[in-house]
Amino acid sequence: DLQGEIEAHTDIYHNLDENGQKVLRSLEGSDDAALLQRRLDNMNFKWSELRKKSLNIRSHLEASSDQWKRLHLSLQELLVWLQLKDDELSQQAPIGGDFPAVQKQNDVHRAFKRELKTKEPVIMSTLETVRIFLTEQPLEGLEKLYQEPRELPPEERAQNVTRLLRKQAEEVNTEWEKLNLHSADWQRKIDEALERLQELQEATDELDLKLRQAEVIKGSWQPVGDLLIDSLQDHLEKVK
């Protein structure tokens, strides 16, 4: 709107300047000429400053708009990524039924955690950038960044931009914390399962050893028919 107003007055400005120069030539050397010259110089200076300020404001708003759009899209992409990762984590359940299966789940989840660790700097950097942007961006700049129906006053449009970015940032932070808690809980279940399965494996190995020893002893028994009657009681006790 401001630039439109400036453009609408451009012809008036040039006409004033041209007419002023003509008058100056006719008044050359007089006190009125000096006064007119100062007024023309002042008008030209203010006109130039007005145009420069208008262009600077436009450049600043366009840069802010581009940054707002980038932040908005970045937050959206992070929310989609976080949802996909949470779904992926949920699909890793339930716990497997034997040691090799759970060990494989552990390997898969460790790779998953490395992926979270790699993404963490991106998420933290984006959230910090949003925080700084909202802190430094004045309301009169924000109101230009978000298209709302014209019935809304500028302040409310600016507040909508602020609320949207802040809401998205809070959602990203919340979903990130939930995902990390979900991951930690799943790792705890895997660790507990591996520990119990390891204990079971050790107990099974010990039982297998004892069974083999028992089979060796059993294999050393003589046929009952070859035993002496006087030694039957002794062999009976050993069997017991």
Automatic annotation (TrEMBL):
SUPFAM superfamilies: Spectrin repeat (SSF46966)
UniProt keyword Transferase present: no
Coiled-coil boundaries: 183-217
Segments crossing the lipid bilayer: none
Coiled coil keyword on record: yes
Source organism per UniProt: Gulo gulo (Wolverine)
Name under which the protein is recorded: Dystrophin
Gene3D superfamilies named among the record's database cross-references: 1.20.58.60
Domain of life: Eukaryota
CDD domains, per database record: SPEC
Keywords associated with the record: Coiled coil
InterPro entries listed in its UniProt record: Spectrin/alpha-actinin
